[in-house]
Amino acid sequence: MRMGQSDRAIAAAKLMGRLKCAELRSIADERGWLGSGPLPDDAELAEVFGKNRDGNATHQSMSLPHEPQIQQWLDQGIPATTIHRALVEQLGFTGSYSSVRRMTQKLKSRHPKTTCILDFAPGDAAQVDFGKGPTITDVFTGKVTRTWIFVMTLCFSRHMYAKMVVDQKVGTWLACHRRAFESFGGVLARLIIDNAKCAITRACFREPEVQRSYGELAEGYEFMISPCPPRDPQKKGRVEAGVKYVKNSFVPLRGYRSLAGANGQLARWVMETAGNRIHGTTYQKPLTLFAETEKALLRRLPDMPVETAAWTRLKLHSDCHLRFEKACYSAPFRLVGQELWVKAGDTYTAAGRFIRHSGDLQVQRERRLI
């Protein structure tokens, strides 16, 4: 105001609204603060502006008596809306939600969350995740397909493998892993993943239950499954950033004629654009860092490709058939009503039949010409 700015200009700078600015200007002009004299000190400002429009001292926040309880709930990760509802229902709180929100913001500023940088050796780990992909309309068939983008990011070099898929089923998850390992020419020592159902059947901090199919794949390729703790996605921040990079840099402003064509574009983009950019953290090209440092330290691929078999628990109905992938398969009548393990490998077709195998029911693979 002393420099001659109008109320409109001050409001446009988002410092305060025009009404409040006009009120402040009136008080400052009345006390002679807008001239060339010295600015008032903090004590004088507090004396003048520590009162409301009626001239009375401002009231303390109605949330102040409940500050310890609010802090305890905040530490448990409970949002402000739920805290306000609990205060009203349990403690008879009569204040507004805005009062609780201001209190939570003040408490969060006192105790900011801190993190640490995770370091990884070459060949040590990769992080895996899915992200929402574009909707593709096939120009030949007219079929509209919603897609997901599978991303595996190497933690050391930041080189990645990405592929568009149509679902997040177990078979898709396993097949993408195999293609990623083949793309890298080796296997990482461990994979850091989220708690997706295609990988983890029960999320737990200490003893998560791994999907049986994924466990077999890990044994075949000899890598360790390292799921993040529940509600802690920061442990796989590098693939989160990778998914965001693909969605923001590759997906927009492109024409997709088919899913196969989109995956062809994505593969070229990963090797040409993404792999040869200067990464914002390493300040090196991911593809160069991978080729020169990390690739030689990856574990060797198995001599024979690991079968990506998907296990599913299904109930045998009273007609001695169970239904898998919209097809019916028979099983012995003595197993009616029981839940059976069904194994479908990567060469599975709807022409299969069930046989006894190591105490489980397995889909017998058959190839036929149609």
Note the main attributes of this structure.
single chain, 370 residues, alpha/beta, Nucleotidyltransferase, domain 5, 4 domains, 13 strands
What is the fold named in CATH at topology level of the largest domain? Answer: Nucleotidyltransferase, domain 5
Element-level helix/strand string: HHHHHHEEEHEEEHEHHHEEEEEE
Distance between the termini: 83 Å
Mean pLDDT: 86
* Strand composition percent: 15-25%
- Globally, the shape reads elongated
Describe this structure in words.
With 370 residues, the chain is of the alpha/beta class. The protein has four domains: 7-49, no CATH class; 64-110; 125-297, Ribonuclease H-like superfamily/Ribonuclease H (Nucleotidyltransferase, domain 5, 2-Layer Sandwich); 310-364. The protein has helices spanning 7-12, 18-30, 42-49, 67-75, 80-91, 97-110, 170-184, 212-221, 237-250, 259-274, 286-294; strands spanning 125-137, 144-154, 160-165, 190-193, 200-202, 209-210, 224-227, 310-315, 321-324, 327-330, 339-344, 353-357, 360-364. The strands form four sheets. The chain has a five-stranded mixed sheet, with helices on both faces. Strand 12 and strand 13 (360-364) form a beta hairpin. Helix 4 (67-75) packs across helix 6.
Which helices and strands, and how do they pair?
Elements: H1 7-12, H2 18-30, H3 42-49, H4 67-75, H5 80-91, H6 97-110, E1 125-137, E2 144-154, E3 160-165, H7 170-184, E4 190-193, E5 200-202, E6 209-210, H8 212-221, E7 224-227, H9 237-250, H10 259-274, H11 286-294, E8 310-315, E9 321-324, E10 327-330, E11 339-344, E12 353-357, E13 360-364
Parallel strand pairs: 1-4, 4-7, 11-13
Antiparallel strand pairs: 1-2, 2-3, 5-6, 8-11, 9-10, 12-13
